């Protein structure tokens, strides 16, 4: 989808160098993916302390079943 955006050229060029991507489009798409991933991780952090742990669960035995 063609989109016109006014992006800070200095930021975009720095992101392009840091990302190692070949195009500005690839750089922006990668940045958006990272942004989304970080936001989802923040949502996961809200669960800490709210989920009860079963101390008797044998996670090593569970791995062997695979």
The SSE order reads: HHH
Instruction: Give the C-alpha Rg.
Output: 20 Å
List how many beta strands DSSP finds: 0
DSSP helix count?
3
CA distance, first residue to last residue: 42 Å
Largest sheet: none
What level of helicity do the residues show?
A: 55-70%
The parts where pLDDT drops under 50 for at least 5 residues are none
Give the rounded overall mean pLDDT: 90
**Beta-strand fraction estimate:** under 5%
Structural class: mainly alpha
What's the overall geometry?
Answer: elongated
Detailed description of the structure:
There is one protein chain. The chain has 66 residues and is mainly alpha-helical. It is 59% helix and 0% strand. The protein has a domain at 7-47. It contains three helices and no strands. It is elongated, with a radius of gyration of 20 Å.
């Amino acid at each position: 989808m063609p989109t016109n955006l006014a992006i800070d050229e200095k930021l975009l060029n720095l992101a392009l160098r840091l990302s190692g991507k070949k195009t500005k489009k690839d750089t922006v798409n990668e940045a958006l993916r990272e942004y989304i991933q970080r936001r989802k991780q923040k949502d996961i952090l809200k669960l800490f302390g709210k989920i009860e742990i079963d101390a008797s669960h044998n996670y090593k035995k569970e791995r062997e079943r695979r």
